[in-house]
Structure formats: structure tokens, C-alpha cells
Amino acid sequence: MTAFEFRTAPHIIVKDGAAAEPGPTLDALGRPERVFIVTDAGVRAAGLLNAHVAGLEAARVKVEVYDKVVADPPEAMVLEAGEAAKAFDADAVIGFGGGSPMDTSKIVALLAGSDQPLSDMYGVNNAKGPRLPLALFPTTSGTGSEVTPIAIVTTGETTKMGVVAPTLYADVAVLDPELTVGLPSHVTAATGVDAMVHALEAYSTKLKKNQISDALALRALTLLHGAVEKACTDGSDRKARADMALGAMLAGQAFANAPCAGVHALAYPLGGIFHVPHGLSNALVLPHVLKFNTPDAAHLYAELGEHLLPGLSGSAEAKANAFIAELERICIAVKLERRLTQLGVNHNDLPRMAEDAMLQTRLLVNNPREITQDDALAIYQAAL
Ligand SMILES: NC(=O)c1ccc[n+]([C@@H]2O[C@H](COP(=O)([O-])OP(=O)(O)OC[C@H]3O[C@@H](n4cnc5c(N)ncnc54)[C@H](O)[C@@H]3O)[C@@H](O)[C@H]2O)c1
Ligand SMILES: [Fe+2]
Q1: CA within 20 to 30 Å of 321's CA: 84, 94, 128, 257, which one?
Q2: Which atom of ligand 1 is nearest to the CA of 150?
Q3: Which residue has a Cα nearest atom 36 of ligand 1?
């Protein structure tokens, strides 16, 4: 058999209402006394933190809330949050929100727990720690950041860089699907497609695909395939919300070990340059990257097609095409924009985007088919 390693967060709590009962989280964090919560203004305004903070204060924990996280966390903001955590003398960090607050909180835990400068942390296995104890509460069902060792930061004006290291696995991930009930339909759509892309890229990744990541990716796709459209139509559908939260987490466990590839690599310039939300960026390039990959990945996409659409017949290529068409159908059904031009991208922007995509070597090495800069340009042209 092929040897492999698999890692994930050591402690996962899945419970409706878990955010209002922080006891188990505090136990998992070693009973801290001064907790620094990292979130954003939208999550705070939605009132999602209220019961959590009240629960912490009832447990006599001192709390400071940093709510200035913005989407696609810029480096300066991450550094500011790190300084605020140090000034508060935090002894634990809680990331509470979507991928942006969770990713920020991971780096805050590192910055407040050791002296390593952020500039030395970028890349794979460069962040050394130690870090402060860390709990993550996702409020979108997308990034899977609660169970990944990854934090994505926007450096300079436009480039997105990853800090990837085992020390970024949180001490505890808390899935409380109730937190996602008020997530607006367009955000639900984007984050749901992001999670589906995590699962399919993990399943078709070139280097580290393994039996555990495959099982997680397949289960994630089953849950997400059944739930994303329902949650977009009726946000209060509790089963759809719970299935999405679980599906996104399982996909996160999968791609944390069997990493993402071309779709994410080509999506990042859209987030970095045009501030297109992460999930929507993925959705825009998704069918075009998969069509490009099909010559080398048809058998894997065909397996995913058979998994989601039982009874599919024909050649591997026909089944792969049916899988890609099903993903496209979902993107349309949940009302995501389908053309780059709808987001203000025009023809002249594409060469720079293709150049930027080539910087995502961490992701590109995993793609089932090699993507050159010319290929990236052709894919963007197809998506225009
Ligand atoms: N760490 C990883 O493994 C990983 C993986 C994929 C993406 N990412 C990163 O994650 C970020 C994107 O995260 P995201 O897609 O979760 O979006 P996000 O965190 O940027 O949040 C999007 C918006 O949704 C709002 N929101 C969040 N939860 C809400 C709720 N329950 N109710 C109402 N509004 C709510 C927020 O206020 C925000 O305005 C990007 O920076 C991306 O690069 C990280
Ligand atoms: Fe993603």
C-alpha cells in the first residue's frame, strides 16, 4: 500500500448551541483567564457573539473582542490584532467567524505566543510557535479553517500568501450550526461552493491523496451536494445548515492533508486584486480549470460524478463532464455570478492575473495537470 500521514485538530465539538456554553471550550484551552476573541464587524453586528461572551464572563473569564477583521485579511491588520492581544496580556485566543477571522486568530495566537516575526512565517512549515491556546468557531460553512493548519494573509497590495504549519491546528474546533442560520444567501452560496471545491480538489490532488482524505472528501460532497441549494433557498433549514457545517469541516480535514490545487491557485488573484469573495472566486474559475484538467483527471472526476449522480453512464470523460456540468448547475441555481466581467474584470487584466496565479506554487504543484502561465491565461479567457 502507499504510505501516508494524516493530521487533524485534536478535539472537535459538534453541537447546536455550543457557543452559548463555553465550558468545554475553556477546558480544552486549559482554563484561561484572559481570552482575546478575533471576529469581524458583520459577525458582531449579527449578535452571534453575545451568548458566547456572556457565557465566558459568567465563567469569570476576562474578554477582549477585536472586531476589525476584514475579508482577505491584510497583513497590517493581522499585525495590529497581534499587538492588541499582547497588550491585553491574553492567555488564549478564540477565532469566531468565517475564514477571515479564524485565519487572523491563528496568526494572532502565534504572534502573542512567541517572538517570531510574521514575515518569517509565510510558506510551509516556517511558523514555529509556540502559540497561545486556540479555539475556532466557524460561522460560515466554507473554508474549513477550523480544522486546517493554514492561515491566508493578503501581503502588499494584492498578493495572498499562506502560513502553513502543524502548530496552526487549533486546540479545539467548535461547530455550532445555529451560528450559520442568519448567513445571507449569497455568502452561503459562495462559501458552500468553496467547501465543495475543497472536497473535489482534495480528491483529485496529485501528491498526497490518501484513503482518509478520500473518505472525508466523498462524505463532504454528499452532505454539501444535498444541502447548499436548500440552505440558499431557506436559510432557516436547520438540517441543511448542519449538513453544510459538517460538510465544510470534513472537506477541511481532507484538504488539510490532500491539498488544494489549480482552482484555488487561479482564484487567489481574483481575491487579491479585485476583492472578489473567496468562494465566488473559486466558483468563477471552477468549470474552466476542471475542463482543463480533464485529460489527466477524468477518472477521478468520473468517480465523483458517479458518487453524486448514481446511475451515470458512458466513458470516464462523459462522466467527468457530467460532474462538471452538475457543479455548474449548482453555481447557477444558487445565483452566483458566472463571468469575470460581472466582477469588473476585463480583458487587459488577465495577463497580470495569470502572472499572479503562477506565484501560488504551494497549490499548483498539486494540480493533476501542469498549468503554465499561458494555460492560466487561456483559463481566465474562458471565464471572462
Ligand atoms: N485557512 C484555510 O484553510 C482557508 C481555506 C479557504 C479560504 N481561506 C480564507 O478564508 C477567507 C474567506 O472566508 P469566508 O469565505 O468564510 O468569509 P469571511 O470570513 O471573509 O466572511 C464573509 C462575510 O460573511 C459575514 N458573516 C460571517 N458569518 C456570518 C453569519 N453567520 N451571519 C451573517 N454574516 C456572517 C462576515 O461578516 C463577512 O462580511 C479568505 O481570506 C480565504 O483566503 C482560508
Ligand atoms: Fe477555499
Answers
A1: 257
A2: 1
A3: 42
Q: Does the beta carbon of 103 sit less than 6 angstroms from any atom of ligand 1?
A: yes
Which pLDDT tens digit goes with each residue over 30-53?
Answer: 999 999 999 999 999 999 999 999
Calculate how far, in angstroms, residue 152's C-alpha sits from the geometric centre of ligand 2: 10
CA–centroid distance, residue 282 to ligand 2 (Å): 7
Using the CB atoms, write b or e for 63-99: b if 16+ within 10 Å.
bebbbebebbbbbebbbebbebbeebebbbbbbbbbb
Nearest ligand 1 atom to the CA of 103 is: 1
- Pairing type for strands 159-164 and 134-138 reads unpaired
CB distance 253 to ligand 1 below 6 Å: no
Paired sense of beta strands 34-40 and 92-97, if any: parallel
Residues 122-171 have pLDDT tens digits of 999 999 999 999 999 999 999 999 999 999 999 887 777 899 999 999 99
Q: Are 105 and 95 in contact (CB under 8 A)?
A: yes
- 217-226 pLDDT per residue, tens: 999 999 999 9
Share of the chain above pLDDT 90, in %: 95
Angstrom distance (rounded) from CA 222 to CA 204? 16
Distance (Å) from CA 260 to ligand 2 centroid: 8
Grid coordinates belonging to 297: 483527471
The pTM is what? 0.96
User: pLDDT category, 272, cuts 50, 70, 90?
Assistant: confident
- In order of 72, 179, 182, 202, the CA distances from 47 in angstroms are 22, 10, 10, 34
CA 155 to ligand 2 centroid distance, Å: 18
